[in-house]
Each structure stands twice: as structure tokens, then as C-alpha cells.
Amino acid sequence: MILAVETSCDDTCAAVIEGATIRSNVISSQATAHERFGGIVPEIASRHHLELVNPIVDAALAEAAVGLDEVDSLAVTRGPGLVGALLVGVSTAKALAAAAGKPLAGVDHLQGHVAANFLAPEPLEPPFLCLIASGGHTLLAGVTSHDRHEVLGQTLDDAAGEALDKAARLLGLGYPGGPAIERAAGDGDPEAFEFPLAMTNDPRLDFSFSGLKTALLYAVRELGDEGALDRRADLAASFQSAVVDQLLVKLRRAARGGSKRRRLPGGGWRAVALGGGVAANTLLRDRVAALCEREGLELKLVDRELCTDNAAMIGSAARYLEPTRYPGYLEWEPRA
Ligand code: KG4
Ligand code: ZN
What we know:
It is a single chain. This protein is α/β, with parallel strands linked by helices. It has 2 domains: 2-115 and 309-331, 2-Layer Sandwich (Nucleotidyltransferase, domain 5); 125-301, Nucleotidyltransferase, domain 5, CATH 3.30.420. Helix content is 43%, strand content 19%. A 5-stranded mixed beta sheet has the order 3-2-1-4-5, sandwiched between helices. Strands 8-7-6-9-10 form a 5-stranded mixed beta sheet, sandwiched between helices. Strand 4, helix 3 and strand 5 form a beta-alpha-beta unit. Helix 4 packs across helix 11 and helix 5 runs parallel beside helix 7 (210-230). The longest helix has 24 residues, at 232-255. It is globular, with a radius of gyration of 20 Å. The chain starts with a strand and ends in an 18-residue tail after the last helix. The structure holds 5'-O-[(R)-(carboxyoxy)(hydroxy)phosphoryl]adenosine and zinc ion. Zinc ion binds at residues 109, 113, 134, 276, 309. Residues 9, 134-136, 161-162, 164-165, 176-179, 182, 276-278, 280-281, 308-309 line the site of 5'-O-[(R)-(carboxyoxy)(hydroxy)phosphoryl]adenosine.
């Protein structure tokens, strides 16, 4: 039984897992606190974590119906993330572990997104290929064991979620941008505007989204304020489709074993998983499902709640780590 804490960005999260089973998974989103700024303000995120973290930990224990003395160990995200935000979770976990006399595991946030796939009801066993696309990261991870992943390709500039957030801001759709773009795109034509498909002729598995953002800016300028408002649904649909297209091209190439850095003996991967907030996107989920169907790949799509940041995935990653005993973890610092 593991009590896990995650505060790397703007969600305050705590969870209790027992083996691969989630006993509780409590998430307090701060999205409304950051909405009027059109993005996350790090200092505000830290202050909210500070107010929320104790009640959220209490709620996770209460919902799991266990006391702190009953858990075997604790786990916490050490990085990467916003340093002030991480500091709150790391300090909280150290204090709880020390007070309860339990060992503590420090977890890599991205390994957490990978480990969301190891949770019940249908844990996915390695090897598999995992596309992680969030507000902070976009990468293709080759997962050959439970305790680590290899980065096969990653974004060279903006993350996919960051691009969606910036596009939503430009279109006046609010924050967080991914869900706002998805809603607006529902009434739009994805072929109305032709946005560039960056990096697709590049043999590597890396991504780039900053050119896409610039293309949207030019399209909006050309239309003028009123014109852009009239065509907002089409702009959102075309932008969303361009982001998903790029993710799909690289995912397909990686799935077929087309990485320069690593070739699997059989030529490709047999299973594909998605993680990160952008994996909550219906168009992406549908397109990846169709790809897997065509290519004969097993597909693992965790619930949307396990795609976005949460502490259950951090607990899941911790199951495969040796936790550190008191006082070894007291010197840990968060990794920005
Ligand atoms: O993994 P996550 O919760 O936090 C980070 O570690 O970044 O991901 C948040 C990102 C944001 O950029 C948000 O706009 C995006 O995921 N996102 C979505 C959707 N829901 C969240 N993007 C596209 N479609 C969605 N439905
Ligand atoms: Zn994340």
C-alpha cells in the first residue's frame, strides 16, 4: 500500500494504491485560479498547493479508508516540473514519511505517465511504445521494463499541449486550451485551413509545434479580429487536426520500429499506450485507435482521469522502485 503525492504543475494530487489497484485518487485542479491569466502562474500554483496539499492527502487516506500508519511506503514526484510547486509536495512527503516512520520513493513525473498503464483493471505489460503529450512535454517513450523508459523522440520546442493552450489563448477560447479547442473544433471544418505538418520529412522521431503556432497567428492576422471570430470553429478544428496529424505520423513511424536510435529485433512494437493531458483528446484517441487497428497493434487507452496529472500514476511508478529509508530522503531537492 502506497500513499503518493504529486504537485509538479497546477494540480494538487494524492492517491492510495494497493498493488495495481487504485484505492483513492484525489485531484484538485487549480485551473480556475489560473484561467484569468491565460496560463499557469508558477507562484500562484505553489501557494495553492500549500493550502491544498494537507486536505488532499487527508481526503485520499479517508477515501481509501486507511490510516497513515497502515501504508507501507510513500511516493512523491521529484521532477521535472515547476520548482516551487514540486517543493510543496516533496516537503510534505518527507514530513509525512518521517513522522510515520515509512520509507519514501522519489518518482520521475514522466515515468509516472508511463506507469499509469501498469494500473488495474487491465495492466499493460512491457514492452510497449508510449506517446506522452502534455502541457510540459511531448515524447515517444520506448518501455521495455517497469522501472524506466527510453526517450525515442521528443519536441524540439513547444509541447503539444502548450501549442493548444497558446492557440486557445490567441483565439480567445480560455484556459486550459486543449479542452477549449476540442469543444470549439466540434463545430468546425478540420480542412478549412492548411497548417504546416512540421518535422514529418525528418527521419528522426522528434516533434516541433512552434511553427504551427506562428501559422495560426498569421491566419488570424489575415482574417482580422472579426473575421477570426467568425471562423473560430474552423481555425480550432484545423489547428487541432494539424497537432494530431503530427503526433500520428511520428507514432506510426515509431510503432513500425523506424527510430534511428533503436530498432527492435522484430522491426516494431506490439503495443501502444497514450499518456499526458493531450491523450484525453477524442480526435487523438480515435485516430490512434484506427492506426492500431490497421497496423495490428494492441492499444491501451487509460481513463482520461489517469491521462492528466494524478498521484495514482506516481504510486504506480513507485511500485518498481526501492524506497529510501529515513533519513536518506531528507536531503532530496526537487528537480525543476
Ligand atoms: O498532463 P497534464 O495534465 O499536465 C502536464 O503535465 O502538463 O496536461 C495538461 C495539458 C494542457 O496543455 C491541456 O490543454 C491539455 O493537456 N489537454 C488537452 C485536453 N485535455 C487537456 N489537450 C487536448 N484535448 C483535451 N481534451
Ligand atoms: Zn504531466
